[in-house]
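Priority: low. Protein: Cell division protein. Input follows.
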Amino acid sequence: MPVITHQEYIKAPIEVCFDLARNIDVHTKTTSHTKERAVGGVTTGLINEGESVTWEAVHLGVKQRLTARIIEMDRPYRFVDVMVRGAFKSFTHTHTFELKNEATLMTDHFDYKSPFGVIGKVADRLFLEKYMTDFLVRRAKALKEIAENQQKNR
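Result:
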């Protein structure tokens, strides 16, 4: 069961970072390389605890749908989403935000189980864990850029 953790320092207020991370429109923008779009549940604006979103995207050359639900939220410090339906056997994605040295430390903690037993474990080692790490890092860096540019333009 792979666990991916990525941290990103962002020179923006914690509230701004928290809201950008749960904004459906921003998510779509920061994952444009996978053609990700919201097709069900909350499809625009901020998603809140108890709400879900269904994403459609192209990952590893295959069009997929995944539904995630926000199961915990402590604004502006933490929210947790879990997969309800999709390609993984399961996942829990914990987003945390801390004030550090006049910046926000955003941490993604992605804990997932691949489907297909042993075949899934082999896929993790061969490519899936790296693919998911790269996906999370790319999104975090895009969120950082958006948040910091908003602060410059204020």
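The domain at 3-152 is CATH 3.30.530.20 (Alpha-D-Glucose-1,6-Bisphosphate; Chain A, domain 4). The chain is about 35% helix and 40% strand.
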